[in-house]
Design brief:
Strands 1-2-3-4-5-6 form a 6-stranded antiparallel β-barrel. The protein has strands spanning 15-22, 30-40, 48-52, 56-61, 68-73, 84-95. It has 98 residues and is mainly β. Helices cover 0% and strands 49% of the residues. The protein is built from no helices and 6 strands.
Length: 98
């Protein structure tokens, strides 16, 4: 794997792999690889970032003790109120290999 990143290391335009444990702690872990398209940093610390994949996006909310991972169906480009689903808790963020 590579060097693990912290949420504050994430920057727009970088490719990362986000890994998470399933909601409720049962079942296999999952992961998503894509480009970071949005980082919300209202103060000094990153509170939320988005990883865009081919057909959907992943939002990570880092302002929780165990950061929440949410899948956005269809990505963020389709306009109003996309369908979202909380899928788990963040395990790690690593640089994506090309």
């Amino acid at each position: 794997m590579g060097d693990e990143l912290q949420p504050d290391d994430v920057e727009e335009g970088t490719r990362v792999r986000v890994e998470w444990s399933p909601r409720g702690g049962r079942g296999a872990s999952d992961a998503a690889t894509g480009e970071v398209t949005r980082v919300w940093r209202p103060d000094e610390e990153v509170e939320e970032f988005t990883v865009q994949r081919d057909d959907d996006a992943i939002n990570v909310y880092t302002d929780y003790r165990k950061p929440v991972v949410e899948r956005v169906e269809g990505g963020l480009e389709e306009g109003d109120d996309p369908e979202t689903e909380t899928v788990g808790r963040l395990d790690s963020i690593v640089p994506a290999s090309e």
